[in-house]
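Homework help board

Subject: predicted structure for assignment chain

Our instructor gave us this sequence and asked us to write out the predicted structure in token form, then describe one feature. I got the tokens but I'm not sure how to describe them. Can anyone check?
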Amino acid sequence: MPRSVPLCLFVGITLTCFAATPKVPVSDPTALAYAAKSMAALTGGTTITDVSLTGSVIWTAGSDNETGAATLLASGTGESRIDLVLGSGTRTEIRDAQTGTALGKWIAPTGSSGQFVSHNCQTDAVWFFPELGSLAAGPNVVLSYVGQETRNGATVQHIRSYVNQSLLVASTQQPLGTMDFYLDATTLLPSAVTFNAHADNNVLSNIPVEIDFSAYQIVGGVNVPMHIQKYTQGTLTIDLTVSSAAFNTGIALSNFTTN
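My token output:
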């Protein structure tokens, strides 16, 4: 009998250790399959390291409505820069992950600038070019399949993504980086992406954002959405018509610094 005591203690300790080990989330195989097919339809098998889009833009904020030229740059999945050259001046938004921490910065036409709060740097930095987003299922990205749905009269496959270990919204325990991708059921090209931004001083305040992609054209073997619209709280804020796209040109990382 005395010899059984150490064994019991060993078993108890072992079970406790197993119970305390956190479960690592894994992607849904169905979601991974749809994401892979979508990426194949988007890239045609081309490996994309960076992208430069140029075109015309209509920018709207409240009663302000301006037209101008737009340049959108991205390198990898963590670096992006948007420059809107409008009548009032240039509006710039930058996302940067070179330090290992997701950062963001805005610059107004007046020259004033500010940093994005960390909870607004959790979603895809390259929201305007799906090939460099969460559909690529990069490290720590967890994908789940929501199902087939009808959206705006079209049949879509709905996939949800988030980055494992990203911050959680305390009220829902949902990661701040959660994004919903809607893939055209026939082509599997993304037709829309939705996610929440948040007030700078209130992470619990959801600000719905929707990105719509349309008018895809093949440029250099890559399917490019030539019409990109960004809605914030249901209001169209950026209406972009792409006129040119270039890939793998070696965009300097200095374009994305936020300090």
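Reply (TA_rk): Your tokens look well-formed. For the description, you could write something like this. Confidence is low (pLDDT under 50) at residues 167-172. That's the kind of observation they're looking for.
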